[in-house]
Structures are given as C-alpha cells and as structure tokens.
Specification:
- The structure is a single chain.
- This protein has 3 domains: 247 residues, 3-Layer(aba) Sandwich (Rossmann fold), CATH 3.40.50; 82 residues, Immunoglobulins (Immunoglobulin-like), CATH 2.60.40; 147 residues, Jelly Rolls (Sandwich).
- It is 18% helix and 35% strand.
- The protein has 8 helices and 28 strands.
- A 7-stranded mixed beta sheet has the order 3-2-4-1-5-6-7, sandwiched between helices. Strands 17, 20, 22, 25, 27 and 28 form a 6-stranded antiparallel beta sheet that branches.
- Strand 6, helix 6 and strand 7 form a beta-alpha-beta unit.
- The protein is globular, with a radius of gyration of 25 Å.
- The termini are far apart.
Amino acid sequence: MKSSLPLLVTLLFGCFLQAKELPEQANFHLYIAAGQSNMAGFAETLARDTEPHARIWLTRPDQEREGNWSGWKAETLVSPNDIGSMYGIGPWLSFAETMAAQDPDVTIGIINVAVGGTTLAQWMKGGDMTELALPVIRRAMEDGTLKGMIWHQGEAGTGIEGGDYARLFQEMIGYYRSTLGKPNLPIVAGTIGRMGVGGEVNEAVHRVAERDLQVRAAVSAHRTLKDVVHYDNESQRILGSRYADAMLTLQGRARPLTIRGPRQVNATAYQYLSAEYEVEGGDGSLPQWSHVGQLPRGIYQVGGWLSGILSATTGEYPFTMIVSQSGAREEMAATIEVRPAKFPLRLQPLLDYTATPSGRLENNHYLYASSSASVLMTYNLPSSISIGKATLSIYVDSVPDDAATLTLALAELPESLSQESGGVEVRRIIKPVETVRSGTWVEWDVTDLVKAIAPIENAIAFAIAAPDLPRHKSVMISSQRSDHPPILTLTP
C-alpha cells in the first residue's frame, strides 16, 4: 500500500469543533491511536457508530492549523452522513466505549494520528509521522492526562530493508515515552492479518510484549478481513474491545472473563447453522475454546463458532461452551434445538470456494469465475424426501464490461476442501446462461442432476466458470459468507 499524505486526514474529516466545556484534566483520560489504515479507520460506517457518547472525545491532526491542532470533537464522533462510508471506523471507537464504561467519572479522549500505508520507520524519531503526531499529542496533553497508546501497524512493514521489527518497535516505544515524559506509558499493539509480512510482525509484537511489562498484544486472530488488509466493522469492534481488555490489564483493573453468545440456538434440519460465541473481559489475548456435550450431526466447533449443515435428525442438544485464557476459565450452558424441515428446502452450500488455476481453493465473501478459475459449491443432499424440482440460484455481484456468459457443470467432489484440490474435475456440462449482468440472480434447473445423485451420494458439487472472459477478468459471485449466498432450492 502506498503511504497516504497526512493532509488527507484533514480533507476527509474537516475541522473539529470543541462542542462543550473541557472535562477536568485529571478525569480526561487520553489515549494515542497510531499506526496504519486499520487504526485510522477503514471499516464501513454503520448507524450504531453515529450514536452520541457524552464521555468520548476525538481529535485528529490538521496540517493547515498551527501545531496541526484541530481541536476536540465531542459526543457525535462520526456523522450520520458517513453511514455506508468506507473510511472512519477503526478499533479506537469500541476501545473508547469499553474504557469509558469502566469508570462513569472519566471522559476518554482519543488522539487519532494514524495514517494509512505508513511504515514503522515513519513513526520513529525524525520520521514524518512522528513530526506530525507529536505536536498534536503535546497539545492534547494540556487538556487531559495521557494514559496509554494503542498501535496497529505492520502491513507496510518497517520501511527499512532488513529491519528487525521487534527492535525498531521497541526503539519507537522508547522514544515516545521519553519525549512525552511518560517512561511507563502502557502500550497495546494489535496483531495483523498473516498475509505478506503479517506472521513476522505478529511474532515481533509478541516478543516485545514478553520483554516489556508495559506492552501487551491485542490479538486479531479469527476476525474477518473485508479485503486482504482491512477488517470489517464487526471485527474492528471486537478488536477494539480486545485492545481495551489488554489496556485494562496493564492498568491493573482487568475485567473478569465472561462468554457472550446465544444460550438457545433454534435451527432447522438440512439448513445451515452458524452461532458465534465471544469473550468479554480477560486480558485481550487469544482465547482457547472447547465444548462438552453432543452437537447435532453436521455441526462443528471452530474457535468460538459453531457452524455447518444440519442433518435430518431433530431434537434438543444441550452442550457447554468453554473458554480459557491465561489460566482463567469460564463456561456457558446452551442448547441447540433442531426443528423439522419446511418445504421448499433452501439449502446453503456446505462449502464454496474459488478454485484457482494453481489448484488451490480460496474462500472469501466473494467467489470469482473466469476462463481460468472456477467457483466450486458443494451441498449436502437429503436422502429421505422425494425431490420434485431442484433449482440452483447464485447472485452475480459484478460483471466486467457489463455482461458475461456463465457455464455450470456437475463436478467431482474434491478429496480435500482445505488444502490443494488438484483442480476441478467436471462430470457434465449444463447449458450456459448467457449475458448475465451485475446485481442480478441467475438460476439453473438442476432437477435431473439432483434426482440422479441423491439416491447414491449424500452431497453434490457444482462448478461455475466464465469461459469467454479474457484471462485477467472475472465475474464476482456472492458466497455463503455474504448477504446473498448461493441457494439450492428443493421442492418435494
């Protein structure tokens, strides 16, 4: 990612206005938010993000003003006009909400100096981001009491060839503590996605946290990227809560470990089930999940998620979710109730992937069909009903050059759906659908195929390609993780 000019912060957010009288300095707790675009805010703004909060204030740099000082923005930190915008929401918001909830007499001030695309070198002594940020931080400290820093950076690396991230990060921390007169300033650093240098950066962050008793890591694992770099809104909120838990632990006032999630999960046979359990409190480190009790057939636990395609077996399934973290342990009793299926059956895919030319299967919010890559979707088939009609429906999110042709095929089930597939083996081509367009549903009648497969196999696989497109272009199809999952509808 290219480094964004700090001036963009001014252009995008404008001038801040101090809407009311400043809180008392001792009760105005300030936190620096620094790093790259995930900290600056690159998640979609939702209506809940615009709700006023009387005890959270925000400031960002303004290079066109003396000392880069734009003043404080109070209460409504994100304008309702920004709903749907892809710039503005980072972990700093839920971090501030969580910190404010711990003490009703305290107002939280976020000094957000983060800028997308910046390297670690830019935040060190003499770096352009440090020169931008320090005057703002010092000016803010005239109004309140600096209590800590939250940091999310690493996708752009160190900016120094062969630079050791752990050593350079420790140097940066030391410089900020020294120049701000806060030798024990608590600092929470978030880990990043493991693409590119992610693994190296995350290991470095943990090494620094092991050496420095006033540094902790807020772990971003098991959160959702809306692209290869940036976290979605819900993930930013959860990550911000982990920042707060790590900060509270450093400050000696950690929240008790608790589980948040549904105690009663209602589900329907043959349908896709997904239930998420999350940690509240603790120390911000990665929680370890397990369960006791029998889950319905087809449902699996991965981390704090229960998901899968249910079998036909109905009834109640009591179980206990268990989470442990740094020696602490918490349990939650819950029940899954599986009800009989209703017809027509609308089945979501058991799994859906983009099968790349290299043979690797990739899973994301969107699937890509082209002349060289296929969309692979697998569905569990019920064996206990008589199928009268079967229809496969997919949502086409975008098409290059306004229109394209999609071809559907019956495919062999790959031996492995998590590693290398070895390509997609086609068993039978189904009539192509021509001139598909963006933002539309496409349907195929697959009755004959399903009737033929259901009596002998418990699953069916479809492959979709766009054979007429140039190699570098593709049709983007919504996956089971989107709002428009591909559906196989069965009518008895």
